[in-house]
Specification:
Blueprint lengths: L8 H20 L10 H15 L15 H39 L5 E4 L4 E4 H16 L2 H15 L13 H17 L1 H20 L5 H19 L1 H25 L1
Antiparallel strand pairs: 1-2
Helix pairs in contact: 1-2, 1-3, 3-4, 3-6, 3-9, 4-9, 5-9, 6-9, 7-8
């Protein structure tokens, strides 16, 4: 510990800036950044990652990093970059959440709400089931390793202790959010089409046989049909998640190249 006091001020501040970006990334990324993971574990994970990444980074001159007015702007820049990278990584789960919400509303199950610790909000049973599948798939394909690698590479494209920042790169986040909604609609299309055709058939049946209470009869039919379509299309959903991870990884690394 005696050698710790021999580190110059610039290196200590550079390590603090690296730690800020990693903490912001760990707090916002999915699975490990959820509310059910203890804060102490997040901080410990961020500290371990920072200690592993910092020796591999190259700084022009750490002596120029001093406690001054610019250190606050540098800190805000690192936190902003970390939040942006974590948000882009979480878009994979946002698309699955949109798909589950649309399917549950279509099937009439939106009234059954559960607390979703992965997203930190209330979600329905279908959305919860799809998010569990997405989490298992994400961890099974080592998606967290891919994005940790991308976060480490961000220090090469957006060096620490630099005041330059391409703000036009953040415009791609808005386009990615629009793409999330489109992907969610495409993933929920089988259930949407099946329930729509069922509603048309029940409407024709109600006109042909007025004695049948279509409103009461159609609800269990819609739920059963929706669950059947979900079971049948589960392999397609898993294969679609593979393409979704590729899209999100492409947006993630595209953001790092232009930042």
């Amino acid at each position: 510990m005696a050698g710790l006091y021999q580190f110059p001020e610039g290196q200590i501040l550079a390590f603090a800036l690296v730690l800020m970006r990693i903490i912001a990334f760990v707090v916002t990324w999915p699975v490990f950044g959820s509310a059910n993971v203890p804060v102490t574990l997040k901080v410990l994970l961020s500290l371990i990652l920072a200690m592993m990444v910092f020796p591999t980074l190259h700084f022009e001159n750490t002596q120029l990093i001093t406690m001054g007015d610019q250190i606050l702007l540098m800190s805000a820049r690192e936190i902003f970059i970390g939040f942006s990278l974590g948000f882009l990584m979480r878009m994979f789960f946002f698309a699955v959440s949109v798909m589950g919400e649309i399917v549950s509303v279509t099937m009439g199950l939106s009234a059954a709400q559960l607390y979703n610790p992965a997203m930190g909000s209330q979600s329905n049973v279908v959305e919860q089931f799809e998010l569990i599948l997405a989490t298992l798939f994400f961890l099974g394909m080592n998606g967290h390793h891919i994005f940790i690698t991308g976060m480490v590479q961000s220090f090469a494209t957006a060096p620490v202790a630099s005041m330059s920042l391409n703000y036009h790169a953040f415009a791609t986040i808005g386009a990615a959010a629009q793409e999330i909604v489109v992907i969610g609609l495409k993933m929920s299309a089988p259930v949407l089409v099946a329930v729509f055709m069922t509603n048309i058939a029940m409407g024709v049946l109600g006109r042909a046989v007025p004695q049948i209470n279509v409103l009461v009869t159609s609800m269990p039919v819609t739920v059963m049909l929706g669950l059947l379509i979900l079971i049948v299309t589960t392999p397609l959903f898993v294969s679609e998640m593979g393409g979704l991870v590729n899209v999100m990884a492409e947006r993630f690394f595209q953001f790092m190249r232009v930042i």
